[in-house]
Amino acid sequence: MKQYLSVLKRVFTRDAAADRVVPPTGITARLTLFSAGAMAFLAVFALALSLAAGRLADRWGEDLARSSTIRISAPADQLSAQTAAALRVLEETPGIASVRALDAEEQRALLEPWFGPDLPVETLPIPQLIEVVEADVGLDAEGLRLRLSAEVPGAVLDDHTRWRRPMIAAASRLRLMGWVCILLLVGAVAAMITLAANAALAANARVISVLRLVGATDDYIADAFVRRFTLRALLGAGLGTLAGLLAIMALPGVGETGGILTGLGFQGWHWILPLLVPPLAAAVAFLATQIAARRALTELA
Which residue numbers delimit the ABC3 transporter permease C-terminal domain (predicted)? Predict the structure, then answer.
């Protein structure tokens, strides 16, 4: 640990003479800035996607786990009687917090995304829907199904299990893919900066030979490269993170469209997480350049 702290202290102690070892401009500088900025921009979106998928999975799990729907399909002259019978059964069933029969306007709103706003619900043989909210003690779904089949022949209980599980699994996998993308971006940053550092070391082979002749140590030379590329990565990642945050804030909010994908973004303390991207990029650049510089200096010896 002390060794790494010593290296960090040497690296971030400015030395104008050592800084001249690494070219301040050129293709390596542009490559490092661009790659760090681009990867940070993508990392912000991958992080936002992963967190949004986690919130979505939690919301689906909580909302659908405590709700059920009863669908009553019956002739028009029997629909009201069966609805009343189903409501009576539900009110007598333990484990139910509340029940409510959806009116025509609510059922029209449910069908509107598929059939348009002018659907004549009153003239169509649409089943009556009853919303059931379960209590904390839980609901015996199988027992309720048996009682409904005996007293309300046209009633079918849907506890959303077949919908909830695949939706939660999909959201969880999407969250996992977001973190996998972040790890791949970290690896890509390390690879890009390693290539850039190797190119800079190879281009300055003669300068390194002269420095060795006048007494410069490999630590002194390596620190110059590590310092330059670490600061470049930090600057590029900072700019990329800022651009990513501005792009995230420009996305439409949930309230504007009500769609699922409009929830992409950060909420609460999660806004702190993107601020960790630039230091992480700098740490990756530090380690990658340190390893590349030591290996290259050994080969040039």
Answer: 182-298
Q: Which two tokens stand for residue 253?
A: 């909010």
The answer to whether residue 3 scores a pLDDT higher than 90 is no
Specify which residues 98 forms β-bridges with. 133
- d(Cα 278, Cα 187) in Å, to the nearest integer? 15
pLDDT tens for 47-74 read 888 888 777 777 666 656 667 788 888 7
Write the CA distances from 252 to 143, 258, 259, integer angstroms.
45, 10, 10
Burial status of residue 116 (CB atoms within 10 A of its CB: 0-12, 13-18, 19 or more):
exposed
CA distance 273 to 180: 16
How do residues 212-271 score in pLDDT, each as one tens digit?
787 777 777 778 888 888 888 899 999 999 999 998 888 766 544 444 454 667 778 888
